[in-house]
Amino acid sequence: MKQPKEVDGIYQADNPMPTWWQLVWLLTIIFSVGYVVYFHWFSDWPQEVAYAKEVAEHEAKYPNKPKLVETADGSNPFREDAVAIKEGEATYKQICAACHGPNAEGAVGPSLVDAEWIHGNTDKEVFANVMGGIGPERQKLNRGGMPAWNGLGADKVYSIMAWLATKNQTLVKAK
Ligand code: HEC
């Protein structure tokens, strides 16, 4: 250790880091160069690749999942699809039950199993209401409105509706 240098009564010490520490530091820098090259060009770790892999694994595991095909009249392509109905029920219980009640009988949000529909009872209308939500300009109940659920994706929303359709005959395919 060098002696502290004195300037105007203030002591300034210069204690270099130990050699072993500096070597470790240098090694991390050398390692990082190799890591970057490997990560970006040679590994399958980037998130796009990892995501594609997970999706492929999921599809291999659940091959029966219905494929989403848009219909001409806007009716729900997942109607009567047992897999979708089951998934839809699970998604409903997880997300919608808080406001519409565990069995869709209504709470803050209106009942979805009775014959009264405020914003339309066709698949097309209900899909639009769920995906886009019901904002202040359209809301009728004055209970804070209905959030937009397009973040769930069309698959999940149609699945929820397929489940609702099993519980409510008045949710119709089209006019
Ligand atoms: C934060 C509470 C809340 C959540 C969560 C919620 N809703 Fe709603 N929903 C409402 C309210 C409030 C309304 C009534 C809007 C109005 O005042 O017109 C509504 C209305 C609706 C309507 C229109 C009903 C009709 O009679 O026309 C449908 C369909 C609907 N919700 C489905 C869903 C589905 C499906 C989910 C889950 C993905 C969901 N909601 C989640 C609060 C919620």
Automatic annotation (TrEMBL):
Pfam family, any one: Cytochrome_CBB3
Keyword Lipid metabolism annotated: no
Segments traversing the membrane: 20-41
Domain Cytochrome c: start-end pairs: 83-168
Entry GO MF terms: electron transfer activity; heme binding; metal ion binding
UniProt keywords, alphabetically: Heme, Iron, Membrane, Metal-binding, Transmembrane, Transmembrane helix
InterPro entries: CcoP_N, CcoP_N_sf, Cyt_c-like_dom, Cyt_c-like_dom_sf, Cytochrome_c_Oxidase_Subunit
Keyword Metal-binding: yes
PANTHER family: CBB3-TYPE CYTOCHROME C OXIDASE SUBUNIT FIXP (PTHR33751)
Protein name as annotated: Cytochrome c oxidase, subunit III
